TrEMBL record:
Keywords: Membrane, Methyltransferase, Transferase, Transmembrane, Transmembrane helix. Its main location: membrane. GO terms for molecular function: protein C-terminal S-isoprenylcysteine carboxyl O-methyltransferase activity. GO terms for cellular component: membrane. It comes from Bradyrhizobium sacchari. This is Protein-S-isoprenylcysteine O-methyltransferase Ste14. It comes from the Bacteria.
Length: 208
């Protein structure tokens, strides 16, 4: 008996299109996910990284948030959207989500070989403080948090809103851990000074 992958894909995609008010937002995030995973092969060699157990402090809320962000949890619970944004609302949400994703991609491309999905010290690592890193210290998190919150609110499901909040908290925690790690690895004079000069995630706020 052969496995019909097309049926599995149909069921999976049907979950998004029936639980989310629009296919457009789902397509945007699916395209982002595929492109992000595909680009993960482009990174420098790791010199040192945070241990797995420590990484659970940020990976767990991101994982739980990601599960809540899918449409199947709300469908399983029988929850309906709190509101329906309409065509104009969906269009605005799509534009803002794409803007957030574009900002995140700008950060990733500008970081180049120093990017990593985990907290690492790459070979020849140095402080990057130009481009989007001159606006915020974590432009990738800034863009993704903004885009996911916009999408979560537009969808209007309690689960997607909670999921977006949990993912945001996880990214904030990861950012804090990165800064402690890089301050030790790159030196307080270099990375610490950068943290005192540039806002963490929200542009134009006082650096902390």
């Amino acid at each position: 008996m052969s496995f019909d992958f097309s049926k599995l894909l149909s069921v999976a995609w049907g979950g998004w299109t029936t639980a989310w008010p629009t296919e457009l937002l789902a397509l945007i995030w699916l395209a982002f996910l595929l492109s992000w995973i595909g680009a993960s092969f482009w990174q420098g060699r790791t010199k040192k990284q945070v241990m797995t157990l420590e990484s659970q402090r940020y990976s767990l809320p991101i994982l739980v948030g990601g599960i809540l962000y899918t449409p199947w949890i709300a469908e399983l619970l029988g929850w309906k959207p709190l509101w329906v944004p309409g065509n104009t609302g969906v269009t605005v949400a799509a534009i803002l989500s794409i803007a957030g994703i574009a900002f995140a991609w700008w950060g990733r491309l500008h970081l180049g070989k120093f990017w990593s999905n985990t907290i690492t010290h790459k070979e020849d690592h140095r402080v990057i403080d130009t481009g989007p890193y001159g606006i915020v210290r974590h432009p990738i998190y800034t863009g993704l948090i903004f885009g996911m919150l916009v999408t979560g609110i537009a969808i209007g499901l309690v689960t997607t809103i909670l999921g977006a909040i949990l993912i945001s908290l996880g990214m904030w925690q990861k950012g804090r851990m990165e800064e402690v790690f890089l301050s030790k690895e790159l030196g307080e004079d270099a990375y610490g000074a950068y943290c005192r000069r540039v806002p963490m995630i929200i542009p134009f706020l006082s650096p902390r």
